[in-house]
Amino acid sequence: MFRSKSLVQDWERPLPRYWNDGSAFKTHFLNALSITLPDCEKFFIETVKPHLKTIDDPTLLEHTTEFIRQESHHRSSHRHYNNWLNRQELPVEERQQEISKMWNWIRKLSNKNRMAITICVEHITVVYASVFLSCSSILDNMHPQFRQIWQWHAVEEIE
């Protein structure tokens, strides 16, 4: 399985408020996406993890275990990013509460429906990641720290 290079981030150093091409819109579009990710990744893990004990195929078990590990790493990385956003006095906590309510509603669905939602959202994520990586202009004008996290996340989603 392909492994992307490790992510090394320093969220304590000074970073530009409008880190994406100097554009408030481009920056906040991706900031808003980052705010949604920790709860989304948590939902994926909660949906897939109970099925580990039912997987007989060693390769599928390895891939599923790796998926859970990656989602956990994505979640942790975006929580650090979101903590930085919070220090910029953006409404992170309010948005996360709204997102959490949505995922809590979805958790009431059947296991089959939760798995279907996980598969669909992961597929959409791969499409977005492919666009990110195939259009260099999207990443080229980002501050290096933000370029690294978005590129790293996109590479991991595609694998």
Structural features, described:
With 159 residues, this protein is mostly helical. It has six helices and no strands. The chain has helices spanning 24-48, 58-87, 92-106, 111-134, 136-140, 144-158.
**Main sheet, how many strands, which sense, barrel?**
none
Mean pLDDT: 93
Taking all Cα atoms into account, the compactness measure Rg is 16 Å
Structural class: mainly alpha
Overall helicity: over 70%
So how many helices? 6
Euclidean distance between termini CA atoms: 8 Å
Strand count? 0
Task: Name the helix and strand elements from N-terminus to C-terminus, one letter apiece.
Answer: HHHHHH
The proportion of residues in beta strands is: under 5%
Principal-axes shape call: globular
**Uncertain residue segments:** none
Describe the structure in brief.
With 159 residues, the chain is an all-alpha fold.
Topology (SSEs and partners):
Blueprint: H1 24-48, H2 58-87, H3 92-106, H4 111-134, H5 136-140, H6 144-158
Helix pairs in contact: 1-2, 1-3, 1-4, 4-6
Keywords:
mainly alpha; globular; 6 helices; 159 residues
